[in-house]
Specification:
- By secondary structure, this protein is mainly alpha-helical.
- It is built from three helices and no strands.
- The chain is rod-shaped.
- The protein starts with a helix and ends in a 22-residue tail after the last helix.
- Keywords: Membrane, Transmembrane, Transmembrane helix.
């Protein structure tokens, strides 16, 4: 009977050791899994930032390369502070061509589409 008791105790010790080992392996697995997920998120963020930086560098290079063309295009538009001069210019053209032109009111409305303008 003593031998059976020793075997039973040995079995209990081995069972407890197996459970402890299983719990440790599970804990280590979940730690590695969480670290892997964190690393993946950081890698994705780094890749996204790298692509964004590359796009911005290409856009800046393109703007620098086309600076003359951009300045030429800017001459075709009325600047924010140039509206009174533009109105006077249009009225002057009207007088030269014999057309009666009357501008009664000018208002500026914000354009929500152009809020992300590069300038």
């Amino acid at each position: 009977m003593n031998k059976f008791s020793q075997t039973k105790n040995l079995f209990k010790i081995i069972l407890i050791a197996d459970i402890v080992a299983f719990v440790l392996y599970g804990a280590i697995f979940f730690l590695i899994k969480n670290k892997n997920q964190d690393t993946s998120v950081l890698l994705n963020n780094a890749e996204r930032d790298l692509k964004k930086d590359e796009f911005l560098r290409v856009a800046k290079f393109s703007l620098d390369q086309n600076k003359v063309e951009v300045e030429k295009l800017d001459t075709f538009f009325v600047a924010k502070d140039g509206v009174p001069n533009f109105i006077e210019y249009i009225e002057g053209l009207g007088k030269e061509s014999g057309v009666a032109l009357s501008i009664g009111n000018v208002s500026v409305e914000p354009d929500t589409k152009n809020k992300d303008d590069f300038k």
